[in-house]
Amino acid sequence: MPLNYYAINKVLGGTMVPTQRHSFGGFGTLRVVGEMLRNRPRKPKHVPFDYQMDALVAKAFEDVRDGRAPERVLWDTKLASRFHVEARRLGVHAPSSQLDRRLINIRKNKARYLKHGISLSETTVIDTQPSIVPEYAHVLEFALVRLRNRYGASIDDILLEPELAQEYEKLTRTVANRLTSTEIRLGALYIRKTRHVAKNELPLFDEMNADEIEEKFEDLGTLSRITANDVPAEEGLLEVLENKNYLYISRNDNLRSVVKELVEGQSLALVSNHFWTPRRDSIDVRIYRGARFDELGLQRWQLKLIRERNPVFNWPVIAA
After folding, report:
1. 8 A C-beta contact, residue 312 and residue 247
2. CA-based angle 244:245:248, to the nearest 5?
3. How confident is the model at residue 11, as a pLDDT?
């Protein structure tokens, strides 16, 4: 007689969480494990907050911010450290990650906190930060996806939790050791901010035909055969596949730089695991040259292809 796992789950006081439909094979197993870890029970480590404590969090940040944006604590470790020290001096003894989360929550819920006399002043310092480094954009994403699969972590979790942030930076530097902490963290924020589709744009995305742009892609061959210098150093879309399974899709400002790293570098080692080991003679690369297709920019086409093809090593696209 087969075991009734649902009944056992109820007896043990567990809960069942709906997940996406999974496929067979190593990649399917990888997604199952990721979903399981994402919904695993977590022991509460947070300190309960009330509006009085939130007011102290806001004051602590105001005392050290010098006009800078609250979100800056996600990547400016020096500012974040000053904020944490000041918050604890004022009597808010909570983990650093929770202090940052409360600050971001105050910023995002301005009207609610104003009712309780809590507010943050306007940002006055707008300093331009370096954009994501084209050569290593995929390295950053591979490291983020590895942590997502291993811990079920969001990008905010990775940047806010000190242990995850350190592991993310360490993973990235195994391939891209010249990147600074600021570049690595800002790269994660760039990926987070660009991996969503506004709800009012969903009708446009539904009308876009992914098969039409796929026909315009050029097959370069396998990683074991590609000569990176033959790839144009210009903007375009990149697809990485294995046996017709989509591994990675991305728009990049410099196709040659990303193909060169894939051919000569070690970025694929970041996503290697017990379920999948990369073989360069079986991994194909395809590119689309240009900045637009069908009068639309490639950023939109990147999102369209990721949503439809569901590549294994891309951060997912959501409707927001």
Report:
1. yes
2. 115
3. 46
Give the Cβ contact number of residue 93 at 10 Å: 10
Q: How confident is the model at residue 44 (pLDDT cuts 50, 70, 90)?
A: very low
Burial 12-28 (b: 16+ CB within 10 A, else e): eeeeeeeeeeeeeeebe
Q: Looking at the whole model, is its pTM more than 0.90?
A: no
Q: Which of 195, 206, 215 is nearest to 288 (CA)?
A: 215
Taking the C-alpha atoms of residue 310 and residue 27, their distance in angstroms, rounded to an integer, is 11
Closest listed residue to residue 53, CA positions, set 111, 93, 112: 93
Give the residue with greater pLDDT, 182 vs 27.
Answer: 182
How many whole angstroms from its chain centre is CA 199? 20
What single string gives the DSSP state of each residue in 61-97?
HHHH-TT--GGGGGT-HHHHHHHHHHHHHTT----HH
Contacts of 127 (CB under 8 A, 6+ apart): none
Q: Where are the domains of the chain?
A: 5-38, 51-114, 134-319
